[in-house]
Amino acid sequence: MANDPVVTADDAFCDELYASRPAWTRGMISKYDARYLYQRVARAGAGTVVEIGTSSGVSTLFICYALHHAYQAGRIGPNFKVLSYDIRTHFYDATDILIGQAAMEVLRPDLLQHVEFRNPATAPDVRAEHELDSLGLVFIDADHRHPWPTLDLLAFLDVVRPGGEVVLHDINLPVAYPEFQDWGAKHLFDDAKCEKLTETTDVGNIGSILVPLDKETLRGQLHGILDAHPWEVEVPPDAAARALERFAS
87-96, 151-160, 161-170 — which is least confidently predicted? Predict the structure, then answer.
């Protein structure tokens, strides 16, 4: 792991927040991933951020604080929102821990009121619940097996504005962590032919796809990515069809 050349005030805040996470959390974003996510949200100028894959809620609390600080800096208005979607209602198989519970435990009540947990829900629900070209930033951190990350992006691409940002977690998962051979996020990030950004101080396991002005070109690439690699999980035909539906006004 590379050493940080400079630890900024934002980095220090993120590190302190990361250290405050509940002891039961596991499988969440790393400290460096959290820094990257915080910075991208804080700078995006998006008052509503959607998260696909809530899990423990560690990433949720970083998104919320980034929006809060963006509001304090005058970059967004006071009615900012985090909308976090997950197919589960409870953390892994722990029936006593709710999806997103880390955010519930750590966030101040006045900040938690800006967070809405949508579960059970999936990426097509994002398309159904938002207007065309209305979202400026979406974070995907759900099922990393191919083709799910690509299907997730296709499911809500219509409601992300041209020039918007899609942050992807675990884009280097099977290489950096060989015990996890889930290639979906890596295939999506590597194969997308558009402007991209990555975290550079750690293993480069989080990055962003910047949605081009011509979203149809990206859509065509995504359909190509679906077929370019063996599927690592069986996708029910109805789930695939729902993901591939287009926005209905």
Answer: 87-96
Q: Quick check: 108 and 71 in contact, CB under 8 A? A: no
Q: Residue 96 in 3-state DSSP?
A: coil
Domains in the chain: boundaries: 29-244
Ramachandran quadrant class, 163 (left: phi over 0; alpha: psi -120 to 50; beta: rest): left
pLDDT, tens digit, 9 for 90 and up, residues 19-68:
999 999 999 999 999 999 999 999 999 999 999 999 999 999 999 999 99
Distance, in Å, from the CA atom of 209 to the CA atom of 84, rounded to the nearest integer, reads: 19
- Region 119-143 average pLDDT: 98
Tell me if 98 sits within 8 A of 112, measured CB to CB: no
Q: CA 214: distance to chain centroid?
A: 22
* 29 three-state secondary structure: coil
CA–CA distance, 69 with 26 (Å, rounded to integer): 26
Range 29-244 has CATH code 2.40.10.10: no
Q: Is the dihedral of CA 42, 48, 51, 57 positive or negative?
A: positive
Q: Is 116 helix (H, G, I), strand (E, B) or coil?
A: strand
What are the backbone angles phi and psi of residue 191, rounded to the nearest 5°?
A: -90, -20
pLDDT tens sequence across 177-235: 999 999 999 999 999 999 999 998 888 999 999 999 999 999 999 999 999 999 999 99
Strand partners, 210: 165
Class of residue 230 by CB neighbours under 10 A (exposed 0-12, middle 13-18, buried 19+): exposed
Looking at residue 191, its amino acid is: D
